[in-house]
Structure formats: structure tokens, C-alpha cells
Design brief:
Largest sheet: 7 strands, antiparallel
Distance between the termini: 23 Å
Oligomer: single chain
Radius of gyration: 22 Å
Strand content: over 45%
Bound molecules: beta-D-fructofuranose
Structural class: mainly beta
Shape: globular
Helix content: under 10%
Number of helices: 2
Length: about 500
Amino acid sequence: VENTDYYRPLYHHTPSYGWMNDANGMVYKDGEYHLYFQYNPYGSKWGNMHWGHAVSTDLMHWKELQPAIARDTMGHIFSGSSVVDKNNTAGYGNGAIIALYTSASDKNGQIQCMAYSTDNGRTFTKYEGNPVLRPFDGLKDFRDPKVFWYEPAKAWYMIVSADKEMRFYKSDDLKKWTYISGFGRGYGMQPCQYECPDFVQLPVNGDKNNMKYVMLMNVNPGCLFGGSATEYFVGDFDGKNFTCVDDPHVPKWLDYGKDHYATVCFSNTGDRVIALPWMSNWQYANVTPIKQYRGANGLPRELSLYTKDGRYYVAANVAPEVKAIRKETKTVEDIKTGASVDKKGVAAGYDGAFEIEFDVTPAADGTAGIEVYNDKGEKTMIYFDLKQMRVVMDRTQSGLTDFGNLAEPHDIEKKADAARQSKGQQPMRIENAVNYKNDFALGTWAPLNLCEDKTYHVDVFVDKCSVELFVDGGRIAMTNLVFPTKPYDSVKFYSEGGKSAFSQIKVYKLGM
Ligand code: FRU
């Protein structure tokens, strides 16, 4: 553990040095995926925000390039988005990449700026007329512009997170922006602050004649298990207003773990909608037990829309590109047990980087699960609890967790918790979590009624310091950091309250 790079993931993107938070400005052009990200090149804590840059042709192998947009006298370069300007609407040539980002400083507040690239996203020139947009009401939190082309109006639209609502703007040239409408006040999880919007179109149950819009809304703090997380809303957009199809006051979560935030999608990917989360939580992002660099992105996920019990939900399944890094396959024989079957060492020699895939039919009213563990007794448990109809990932004994005592919920979250306590109720993040010990040492869970039947397809990705769970093609996604002091190399399958069946079990070594 002395080696500060010990926890560096093998197959997830990380900066070689420095701090990283939100993936932002992601765009696909001419066979290249551009990943820009909130980056501090000078240290491993948040500060001096730049747009870092990495490119990939397969979403898995990332080549680090020079930071693309550097902090300047107007302030930090906060999150934003980029588009390919195919029709030269901005005047920098057909196919220029145009980035919209937030300049943030105490002096100027948060204002939206533009920069353009004519060398395939390598370097950007800041527009001399910046800023292109200020809040009309002096709002302090006004950031993370998401730009998209809306064909029916043949115009660009931009969504900006404006404290407790999202604001839509419209433009012909990506420079002059007109206010259109607001969305989301009082919706979803409260209290909170909205950040990093995205807006994508998806076919309902795969039917391309029935498209709906989905707004991704990243919310901090006050989420399900404390801190930050990604909500979404499904609805219709008429060029002016976005209207939800389901009750917008009931939050829907793109991921049920604690380390999935600022998630937005690549632009210009045709029919595919590929999302990328930052794998941390603002409660403890700055104090995770890493020194040299800090921050990793989750695996790319492909989004789709399905209906269940008359409501609309987004599935976030691991992108198929991830299959290409399977290096070795082990098949484990089917397991039927009322106790446990220990596959000790099944991932030995894999350096803590592997995938476990299986189908499980838990005992009726019982519990079936796996323990991913090392020989120091550190383990992450994933189990299906049919009594409570939920799937849990418990990291209370996963390895280092004490730094979670340092987690600092924002004032707004402390206030909400205090208000609940004064009414004799539990603080929210403590009440929702399983086995809450501190803001890191806890279990997160998702409702199993998002799935169709009681045999679940399970895909688990372990990479040094993270565990990502995908159930039934991403109907449930759950992303959590873990810090075992030795790589996990073993898996135990277990059942309680009756016999459970595990089948189609595969363990893959993953690597680059
Ligand atoms: C989300 C966020 C954004 C902001 C950026 C600053 O994690 O707070 O709202 O643009 O991080 O780094």
C-alpha cells in the first residue's frame, strides 16, 4: 500500500498524474473518441481546473494528450460539452469541434464560454467574444452547458444547470443564445443542486418509431446513500418544453452505487448512446487513499429505454467494447447450494482485474450472492435478497474504509439530516444504506422489481479499486469504489434460507 499507484486501475481510464473529476465534452469524430475531463495538472486534489484530454479508437485503450483547455484569467474551466459543427454554423469550418464550458471564478461568477478546434480536438482557441452566456438573474450556480442539435428546429440547444432547475437555450451559431424554458424545479431528489445535464433520445423497448427524450441530471448533495449521484427523467420535448411522462417527483437512478457521478454521454455517436461516469463521490473524492493521481472513470455504458409496470426506465449496460479486453476465460461448473461453495484462487494471478458473469436463481424468500475476497479477510459482498426484493453491494469489510470518517457532507446535506433528526427520523444517507458505518463503509442497494423474473443475469467487473455490477442488461447498474490492501483473487458463492442455483459461471481475466 506504500506504493501510491497500487490502486491504479488496469483497464479503467485514469490520468497519469494529477486530479480528475467529471468526464466532460466527450465527442466522437473520424474514428476517435475524445474524452475531456475536469483536470488539475498540478496536484491530486481538486483545483486549477483544466480540460484534460485522452483519445481512443475503442473506448478502452486511452492515449493521454496535452490538456486541451487551460485555466485562464476568467477562471477555472468547469464542465461542459462539445459538438461537431458539420454545417459550419459557427464559422470555423465544416467539422470544427466546438466546446462550450463554464468559466468559474469568484470575481466573474459562472458564465458560459466557447472554444473551437480545427485540428480534431487537439488544441482549442477560446472565442474572443466570451462569455457567450450569463445568467439573466445573477444566479451563482450556473454551469455545465450541454449542447445538442435539434433537427425539427434546425438549431442548437443548450441546457445549463441553474441551481435547482435546468434551463434550455437556443442558438443558430453557437454564440448567441436565447432563453427558452426551465425544467425540473421541485423534481426528483431534494434538497440538492443540479449539475452536468445531458439530453438524449432513445427508442422505447427498441422501437425506433417510438422515441422518448431522457434528461440525465447529476445531483449533489443529498442523494440516495449520501453525496452525489445521477438521476434521470423520461419525457417528450417539443422544441420549447421538456415534459415528463412519469411522475417527476419520484427519483429514478441511473446507477445505485455511491461512486457514479457527473455522468454524461459522447456526442455524435449516431444511434448509440454511450455514457461515462466519474467513479467517485463528492463526499470523499478528495480523501480516497491515493496520492500520485486521483480519479478514474467508470466503464462506458450503453443506454437503452424499457418499460416496466407502465413506467419508463433507462438501462445502463456495460458497453460491448469491454468484451475485447477479456484475456482468459475460466468456466466454473454449475452450483446448487443451500450453504456456500468456495472458489478460492479462481482469480489468482489476475492482479485484481477480472470479470465474473453468471445467472442466479436465488432461493424463494432467501438470499443468494457472492463474496469477492482476498486472503486478508477483506471482501465485497454482492447478494440478492428476495425477502426485501433488493440486490445489495456491501463494502463495509472491503479493505480500507476509515477515510470515510473524513467525508464531509455539504452544509445542505447536513441541514437536511439535522431536520430529519429533529423530527426523530434517521439521517437520510444512514437510513438508506445497508450496514452504515461511515460515508464510505456501507452497502448500497437497488430494487429488484426493475427486473422481469427471478433468474438474474449478473456481470461484475473488478479492477483494483472498483466493483461495477450490471444486472439483466443494465436494468440495475451499481458502481462502488473499494480499497482492498491485497488484490481480490477469490470468489465464494453462497445461499441462505434455502437452495439457490448459479449457472453459466465464467471468470475472465481482464487486461490491456
Ligand atoms: C460536478 C462539478 C460540476 C463542475 C465541476 C467542477 O462534479 O461540480 O458542476 O463543473 O464539477 O470541477
